[in-house]
Each structure stands twice: as C-alpha cells, then as structure tokens.
Write a structure and sequence with these properties.
Radius of gyration: 26 Å
Strand order of the largest sheet: 3-2-1-4-5-6-24
Number of strands: 24
Shape: globular
Largest sheet: 7 strands, mixed
Number of helices: 30
Strand content: 5-15%
Length: 804
C-alpha cells in the first residue's frame, strides 16, 4: 500500500534543523523530497553537537537521520536557474529558509507569485516582513525574546534564567512547518490554489515554550509566576541515581505527602497553591528521597498514581524497558547509529521505513535527466472559504494542554470542534487559574482554558451513566474525527476503543494521544508534560551542570499536539484516498523522543554524552545570559540579556560594537574553537560590560551591527514586541464572563488566510448542550430530563438525582 503523501513532490530549499525536520516528516509520510543544495552542501552535513570530526565529503549523523529518504540535487547558483525553475514548477510544495546561496536565488514571495499552485512554507526567525524581519537571531536568542528562557518559572532566583537545552526551538519549528504544509495542502486539493505560509520561529517558541502568559496576565491582572523556582519534587537525587516525580493536581500532592510519610503536610484549607505548598517542604522531601532507591520510589509513586519516570539521556534512554518493548528506537540503515522510530503510529497506513540519507548531489543527474511536467495553473475560481478544515466535525475528548492544543489548531483552521467535558470532571485547565471556588462562575475564568479552546463548542456528558454513553455513541456517529488523551485504561473501561468506534461511523479517524502509548509497561502511568520531558531526555540538557536538571515544564505538551496533528493529517489523506477508517496513536513520549533525537544519535554514533551547560550551547560561542542594569517590574535587580555569536563574522561585529577592546583583540578569538576555549574569559568581560547598561541600550548597540542579542523577556510581556504587533500574532477575544484579552494565534502569516483565526470565544461549560443534543434528535423535554438527572449540566460537581 502506498504511503499517504506518495506522488506529492516537495522541493527542500532549507538549511538547518527546522527545515530538515519538516521535510523529514513529509518524506516519512511518502512525499518525494528533493533537497536542493549548493555545491558546498548544507552546513548541517558537517554538524555535530559534540564537535565530533566529520571527514570532508562525509555527512554527520544528525544530517544522516534528518536526510533519510530524500534525494539530493546540487545546483550552482551561478548557472542553475533553469533547473531550479523547472523543479519548483513541477513541485507541489517548497520549504524555504535563508542560509544557502541556492535558496536565496529566489524569494518565497516570488516563488508564490510565479507558481500560484505551490504551497511555499518559508521558515525564518521573525517572519518575512515587519520591523525585525532582517535582524540576526539564533534559537537561543529567540528563546529569550519569546519568554521561553524563563518559561513558567523555570530555574532558581539565585542564578540567571536557564534556557531549554537541545535546540528544541528548531525542532518544534520544523514540526509546525510540516503540519502547516499538510494543512494547506487540504485546501489546495479543494481549489488548486497554493499558499505562502510565512512561519515565524519566534512565534513557534511562544506557543511551545510558554503557557499562554499574555492571556493569563491580562485576564487576571497578574503573571503566572513572579520568580524562578525549581519544580518540587521535579528531578531529584535518590540513593542510586536521579528520579523524576511530579504533582500536577492537589490529589497528587496529597498522595505524595502520604507516600513520604508526612500526611501532616496536607492542608485542604490553605490558600497556597500546590507549588507553594511543595516548596515549603522541599528540603524535608528531598532528604527523604535521598534515602530511597530509584526503583522503590517509582514503585511507590506508581501505586499512588503519582506521575514518575526515570531520567533519560542519550546513553540510558534506549535501554529503558518501556521504550525497548515498544521498539521506540531503530538502527539507522546507513550511519551505524541509533535513532528514534516514527513519532506516531498509524494503523494500516504505510510510513516510509528508516532510509539512507543521500550523498551530496547523488541524484543530480537523475533529476536533471527527467522532464517533469509543470503543474497547471489553477483554473477554477479561488475558494472564498480560506479555512482548510471547513466541513470536518471533530469530537474533542481531550483535557489539559497536549490534546486541546491539537484540536485547537483544527478549530482555528475551520473544523467544527465539539469539546466534551462532564460536570464531575471538567477540563483540567478550568481548575488551574487560582480562582477561589467562592467566586461566582470561577470555573469559567481560566485564561488557559480560554486560550486553548476558542472556536470550539462545549458539551457536557456524564459517560459513566448508560444514558451518557448512549448519547456519546450517537454523537460519534456524526463525527469525522475523534480525538482523546485519556490513559488507555479509561477508554477500555467505557468500551470506546477503535474497534467499537469504527462501528459507529464508517471511515472514522480516531486519534489517541496517550502519554506513553497504548502498550508497554508504562502505558497506564500518568503522563504530565514534565514527566514526558524527564523520561525522554528533554530535561537532561536544561539547567546547570552542578545541579539536577530543570524540567522545561512546557514543551512536552504542545510538541505532542503538533506531532499528533501531523499524524492526523496523514491519516486523513489516507482516508481521502481509500475511504478507510484509521487508528492513529500519537504518544506524547514518542513525539518527545524525536525532538530529543540528537542526544541518542550523538551517543550511539560518537560515544558523546551531551551534557547541560547552563546557557552555553553547541551552536554559538560565546552564548550566555548576562545581567544588565535595569530593575525589573518586581523591584529586583533581575533583568538580563542573551547574546549568541554563531559565526566568525558575528564575532567581529560584536568586537567592533564593543569598541574593539584589547581583551577581544586576540587572533584566536576570531575562530569558533578559540572562542570556545576562552569562553570563561569572554563571559567575564561581557558580564562586566552588560552590568552597567540597560537592556535596551545593549540591544541597540549590538543588534544593528548584526549580533544576535535579545532581552530576556518576562513571558507576560510578549505583546510589547513590535514584531508580534506587526504580524497580528495576538487577537483580542471577547468572552461572556471574562474581559476581552489578547489570545495567541498560529505562528504563520498567510497570503490567502482568513481575516481572523479566533472567531468565537472558548465555550462555557455545557454551553452548546441544547444545540448539539437537539441535532441528535432529542426533544426539549428529554434534554431537560438529562439536566435534572445530572447527565448534562453547566456547573462543576453537579450531582445526579436519578439512579445510574
């Protein structure tokens, strides 16, 4: 059986991880990806995070992983215009980023103008226009601008903020680029017209490294966090190694108190948050953990249903029993190293097996000899409906962040999304705003719920009752897609596995998003984002070498959501071609293993165990976060700037912008190796220079000179960035209970996009009960009886008055 994207041709004009991962996802889906390179090749071919030597003409392990299944064509920018024109005229999509001479032969705007059938996905730091569009940036400085370097309180107040290691911004940008390319392909299939998808890496990092801080701040009048503090317990030292424990709910905190022998810590009448209670008892808790073995702690935690995991890194993660049983890692067929398997599993759908990466120019002669037919220009009128998923009905049985982030994108792009809750168990994000239950309509005031659920309809059903289960089955019969992210045992208990669901609707797509997968030893373990990050290696590279790792505490959820969307779009294409029902398993852990792939690849290919190193990193030197002279909005000397020098030219620019001081004159510093060797020296001088200057002054001195620099933003100040205002990344959304507030959209600007992405506010609890149940044929009297029996409702905790 052919793969979903077979026959779909993508010309890859990108360099770097983001574009390579985007096109890797498309190639795995069956697309013919033609990687166009200049004679010197993509610089990624010579990349190794551990600086392992790569012989000239060879390709490093990361490129070998990301290049699997693609074809390589070399074009000389001085003479290859005709071949490039021929390739893009016959392609369906182009993925573009600046950085190579061949890519810069033609702009994304010109590609889109010349070839109106093309999906052109342009990846850039800030977007193709706006006041910052041509400013220098690295993944590290984008984290600072986004607020992701602080995240939701990551780190500790006694040190500089700690960025998320592993270049995760590049990886999630690539995943978003693939998802948006696939999404607008759906519309192109409808009317023949392409799209210019102008994708901003900054905006992607906002969505994946921060937790809707602007909406939170402007709806409630306070930021989520005012200081950095480690997650408790988080990653902790046990007697024989590191262990990860988490408390995402009050019940989990109470259970942890009992588990550790301190039930006296439980105070149900306190006004303190779970985080504040845990910090009060942190030292005693850590003392207890240091006396226990990792396996004993995990066995106890699992018995108490407390999220837990071993702490993964490039060396040990491949041997963890769960990942071994699920075959989460495979051998690269060419490079002699280990790599993650696909980030999702799609039943009955053929994904490309692990394939070799091409040698530089390996397919030039083959492609040049072909005479591909140029795609015809669209003939029919342009569809006025600019939303790709119009007409699709989605039942959204998800909660918290990962699942709703996936269905939220579907809703923003036109799908009818029915968000299912019950009065006994509302969506968990309704409960985390810190609104006292004594306040009127407290459950409607969560900024997080509001930010994740615009354009959705709200339905409550207690499917623990027979009436509720019957209505749920009837509703499923009207839907094209069902999405759920319960632990597997919940779906099994209510009899709604794929085999059951497919009997309710021919050709239905069921997207399941368990934390650790549908099988394996950890299948029923609670899986909050931070535990996923800990187990898969995402935490390992975050923080300082003399401390246990900091949990990113953000990326695990939205990364799972965007990977699930990629999988769903492949399943929808398979259904379009065959009419078949499809089960999609998009485990959060599998998605995380893929964006942490570099750790396993470096260790298995070169024997190098990548380590966290504060705010230094492999892609730039110097790279760090430096304190500046400003007093922050909380009255503290806690303002910072991020500086990253990724090239020798940027070093010269930095040296000159500083006034060419004597300490920077050494010739060895003009090379990356020399700067790495003298990083401590450089840090000392840059720290002294920044300490006497305001952040704005530092940015204004360095950025115009071409040095990647950023203020380390508090996340709730994202609306102050002029680039985001220019691109209308935030849209004001009204609400019947809450004040109108800015809501983030998607990290893209579109040539033919809708005027706005947020068309309706997030639903009130059960807001659309009458409408949706009437569509199922229920009378007003029947709906009233359901409400009286507590099967439906509009307030949390409503009790049923009738027997089940």
């Amino acid at each position: 059986m052919s793969a979903p994207l077979s026959g779909y041709t993508v010309v890859d004009l990108s360099t770097g991880i983001a574009g390579a991962y985007c096109t890797r996802i498309l190639a795995d889906g069956g697309a013919d990806v033609i990687k166009v390179e200049s004679p010197g090749g993509d610089p990624l071919r010579q990349w190794s995070a551990s600086a392992a030597p790569i012989a000239p003409g060879d390709s490093g392990a990361l490129f070998t992983f990301l290049g699997g299944g693609k074809r390589s064509v070399v074009i000389d920018p001085d003479s290859g215009t005709a071949l490039l024109d021929r390739l893009v005229a016959a392609a369906d999509a182009v993925v573009w980023s600046a950085g190579s001479a061949v890519a810069e032969m033609i702009s994304p705007e010109e590609l889109h103008r010349r070839h109106p059938h093309l999906i052109v996905t342009a990846i850039s730091p800030f977007g193709l226009d706006g006041p910052w569009h041509d400013r220098a940036a690295t993944e590290f400085t984008l984290q600072a601008w986004s607020g992701g370097a602080i995240g939701i309180g990551r780190g500790s107040q006694d040190r500089a903020p700690a960025h998320v290691g592993g270049q995760v911004g590049e990886w999630v940008t690539g995943a978003y680029a693939a998802a948006m390319t696939q999404a607008f392909r759906v519309r192109a299939l409808r009317d023949g017209y392409g799209e210019l998808i102008d994708l901003s890496a900054l905006e992607t990092q906002i969505l994946c490294l921060t937790y809707y801080p602007v909406t939170y701040f402007q709806m409630l009048g306070r930021p989520w966090r005012t200081e950095r503090r480690p997650t408790v317990p988080g990653v902790a030292e046990a007697a024989d190694g590191l262990v990860a424990l988490g408390c995402g709910t009050a019940q989990q905190w109470h259970d942890l108190c009992v588990m550790s022998g301190h039930s006296e810590w439980i105070d149900e009448d306190t006004s303190l948050t779970i985080t504040e209670q845990a910090n009060l008892h942190a030292e005693e808790l850590y003392t207890w953990l240091r006396d226990q073995n990792v396996d004993d702690i995990r066995d106890l935690a699992s018995a108490f249903r407390i999220p837990n995991a071993p702490v993964g890194n490039g060396e040990n993660v491949t041997a963890m029993d769960h990942f071994v049983e699920r075959a989460a890692f495979v051998d690269n067929p060419h490079g002699g190293f280990t790599q993650p398997a696909h980030p999702y599993r799609i039943g009955g759908v053929s994904l490309r097996p692990p394939s070799p990466a091409p040698a530089l120019g390996e397919h030039t002669a083959e492609v040049t000899a072909q005479t591909p037919t140029a795609r015809p220009e669209p003939q029919q009128p342009c569809d006025r409906d600019r939303l790709p998923f119009s007409g699709m009905r989605v039942l959204d049985m998800t909660t918290f962040w990962a699942g709703p982030s996936c269905t939220h994108i579907l809703g923003m792009l036109g799908a009818e999304v029915i968000h299912l809750e019950s009065t006994a168990r509302p969506d968990g994000t309704r409960l985390i705003a810190g609104i006292p239950a004594s306040e009127e309509l407290w459950w409607e005031r969560s900024p997080i719920f509001s930010a994740l659920n615009t354009n959705k309809k709200g339905l409550t059903l207690d499917f623990q009752t027979e009436q509720g289960r019957d209505l749920l089955r009837r509703l499923i019969g009207t839907c094209d897609v069902v999405v759920e992210n319960f632990t597997p045992r919940v779906i099994d208990q209510i009899g709604l596995d794929f085999e059951a669901v497919r009997t309710m609707r021919d050709g239905i797509i069921m997207l399941r998003m368990p934390g650790f997968g549908l099988d394996g030893p950890w299948r029923d373990n609670p899986a909050f984002a931070y535990i996923i990050e800990d187990a898969t290696g995402l935490s390992w590279l975050t923080g300082f070498p003399d401390r246990t790792p900091f949990e990113p505490y953000a990326v695990g959820d939205p990364n799972a959501g965007v990977h699930a969307l990629n999988a769903l779009l492949l399943a929808l294409e398979h259904h379009r071609r065959t009419g078949e029902a499809v089960l999609v398993e998009a485990a959060m852990a599998d998605a995380a293993l893929n964006i942490a792939a570099e750790q396993v690849i470096e260790f298995s290919a070169y024997g190098a165990l990548l380590q966290r190193d504060g705010n230094r990193g492999p892609a730039a030197a110097p790279q760090n976060i430096y304190r500046c002279a400003d007093i922050d909005e909380f009255g503290r000397a806690d303002s910072w700037v991020a500086i990253a020098v990724a090239t020798d030219a940027q070093w010269i620019a930095l040296r000159d912008a500083l006034g060419a001081p004597d300490w920077a004159a050494a010739g060895a510093l003009t090379t990356r190796a020399g700067r790495v060797a003298q990083h401590d020296l450089i840090d000392g001088h840059l720290a002294a220079w920044c300490a006497t200057r305001a952040g704005d002054e530092i940015v204004e001195s360095l950025w115009p000179a071409g040095v990647p620099v950023a203020k380390v933003m508090q996340p709730h100040r994202q609306t102050e960035l002029p680039q985001l205002r220019h691109r209308r990344f935030f849209e004001f959304v009204g609400h019947p209970v809450n004040p109108a507030a800015p809501h983030s959209t998607l990290p893209i600007a579109l040539s033919r996009g809708p005027a706005e992405l947020h068309r309706t506010a997030a639903p009130l609890l059960g807001e659309h009960n009458d409408e949706l149940l009437t569509q199922l044929g229920l009378s007003p009297e029947e709906i009233r009886a359901l409400r009286e029996d507590g099967v439906i409702g509009s307030e949390p905790g409503a009790r049923r008055t009738a027997a089940r």
